[in-house]
Amino acid sequence: MKRYAMVAATLVFVAATGVHAQGPPASTAEEFEAKLGYETGTVTLKDGMAKIQLPASFRFIGPEGSRRLLTEAWGNPPGAADGVLGMLIPTASSPLSKGGWGIVITFDEDGYVNDSDAAKMDYGKLLKEMQDQAVESNEERRKQGFHAVHLVGWAEPPSYDRTTHKMYWAKDLVFGDETDHTLNYSIRILGRRGVLVLNAVASMDQLAAIRGETKNVLAAVEFNEGHRYADFLPGKDKAAAYGLAGLLVGATAVKAGFFKLLWVGILAFKKVIIVGAVALLGAIKRLFGGGKQTA
User: Fold this and answer.
1) FRET label pair with 168: which of 118, 204, 217, 233, CA 20 to 30 Å apart?
2) Using H for helix, E for strand and C for coil, what is the string for the chain?
3) Is the pLDDT of residue 45 over 60?
4) Number of domains the chain is built from
5) Is 293 among the domain residues?
6) Is residue 284 part of a domain?
7) Rounded to whole angstroms, how far apart are CA atoms 199 and 156?
8) Is residue 78 part of a domain?
């Protein structure tokens, strides 16, 4: 089973789901991993835009090592590695092992996201909105040969820290007639010119493990001076066309070409992890009233 990828200007959590259809032969797995180029300590991203002070629980691999892991080992299409700045790999496990996972690092330069709507957000209402749109779009997905997607609820309710300008949440999803639930764990880090996005797709039984590393990751990744949220210059810097609610329902994903590729960490039979262009666009239209311009 292959793990397909979407890496559209994001910083993504990735969970291994078992067999690597296009991974290196077992006899060369150790050699393959040794050539990924692991780094420790502090690493810099995108010409000094941000830095990662690696905790002991993670290692870093650069763009080339990330490309090899995503495409050669995990069987993603070549486009999955476009724009990838690097990956974080847990120290405790190999990314080639069953249950191994990593964090794909990219950047969405969509502009400054105003967080003034933070105090007014009704997460229950937003969830209901997304659930309704998912139901409405299931018929279209079936016509296109995809399974239905059911948004069960929050696996982790949304939380936003106005001091650090970091937000996270997790969704509980079910695909078609599957009995196993899929976890979609998301983190957003706001900056002066865009957003770093962390997105995990895994089984629900991995929630505790991923949640346990969330604080480490949040503390490790920071924008550098000049690129921080507080460095935004009104009237001079670009502003995003949406707020925090847009991040939650996927405005950045739609704009960045979310549906051109499939998510990292998804089994071939679970292509429908993508809730659907119809669902996301519909939700955005309802929430922001901007139609195509907002999307």
Assistant:
1) 233
2) CCCECCCCCCEEEEECCCCCCCCCCHHHHHHHHHCCCCECCEEEECCCCEEEECCCCEEEECHHHHHHHHHHHCCCCHHHHCCCCEEEEECCCCCCCCCCEEEEECCECCCEEECCCHHHCCHHHHHHHHHHHHHHHHHHHHHCCCCCEEEEEEEEEEEEECCCCEEEEEEEEEECCCCCCEEEEEEEEECCCCEEEEEEEEEHHHHHHHHHHHHHHHHHEEECCCCCHHHCCCCCCCEEEEEHHHHHHCHHHHHCCCCCCCCCCECHHHHHHCCCHHHHHHHHHHHHCCHHHHC
3) yes
4) 1
5) no
6) no
7) 13
8) yes
Classify residue 170: in a domain, yes or no. yes
Cα–Cα dist 181/96, whole Å: 23
pLDDT of residue 290: 41
Average pLDDT, the chain: 76
Range of the domain at 260: 11-115+152-274
Strand 101-105 relative to strand 86-90: parallel, antiparallel, unpaired?
antiparallel
Hey, what amino acid is at 135? Answer: V
Q: Which pair of structure tokens corresponds to residue 55? A: 């905790």
3 pLDDT more than 50 = no
245-287 pLDDT, tens digit per residue, is 888 876 544 443 333 233 333 333 222 222 333 333 344 334 4
pTM for this predicted structure: 0.74
pLDDT at 24: 58
Q: Which two tokens stand for residue 89?
A: 């790999």
Sequence-distant (6+) residues with CB within 8 A of 196 are: 10, 11, 50, 105, 107, 108, 188, 189, 221, 223
